[in-house]
Amino acid sequence: MSKNNFGRLYTELVDPALWLVTSAHGGDRGGLIATFVSNASLAPDEPRVIVGIAKHHFTWGIIERSRAFCLHLIDQTRIEWVRRFGLSSGHEGDKFVGLTPATGSNGAPVFADVVLWSECKVEAAFETGDRSLFLGRVTDCGQGGGGRPVRMAEMLKSLSEKDRQENERRMTRDIAIDAAAIRQWRRT
User: Which domains does the chain have, with CATH numbers?
Assistant: First the structure.
């Protein structure tokens, strides 16, 4: 197997859940769809998560400034959010138009009617060239209802041909940006 196939094969085999990551600071608010989200603590009284956000995303800058974010594990009833938050950029406009999230104690938009949500304060950030890994301390959390989390393979199958092409265009762009950032980071 070629190492170039590893990422694609890994995603197919693992089929990661899709998370909506939100943040706000100084009048700006952002949100994006992420698959790089993981539990980062075994201690029940010290819940933490780690989320990987590419540096070229609008939401990355907001998390950097606010040092806070919210995670939302979305279910089938929210698959439209994948299109809203995953196929457009906060650099292009406000993705929250028409939505009425609450404001969390950390200032980030919170949607409590999802499978699982958490408010997080950044305890540490690790630079990896193309993205930052934010270690977040969970400061509040809840369950909004049942439902099965949306996974990557299911989301891809649900896209219209137009959305599939847009997803592919953005993915190709992101791969080029990420690859250049990783190579630059390795040189320093």
Answer: 3-187 (2.30.110.10)
163-169, long-range: CB < 8 A, 24+ apart: 163/83, 163/87, 166/87, 167/86, 167/87
Neighbouring C-beta atoms of residue 33, cutoff 10 Å: 20
Asked whether the beta carbons of 54 and 128 are under 8 A apart, the reply is no
Residues 62 and 180: their CA atoms lie apart, in Å, by 22
Whole-prediction pTM: 0.92
Whole-angstrom Cα distance, residue 34 to residue 51? Answer: 8
- Choose the weakest-confidence range: 6-10, 63-67, 163-167, 173-177: 6-10
Task: Band the pLDDT of 10: cuts 50, 70, 90.
Answer: confident
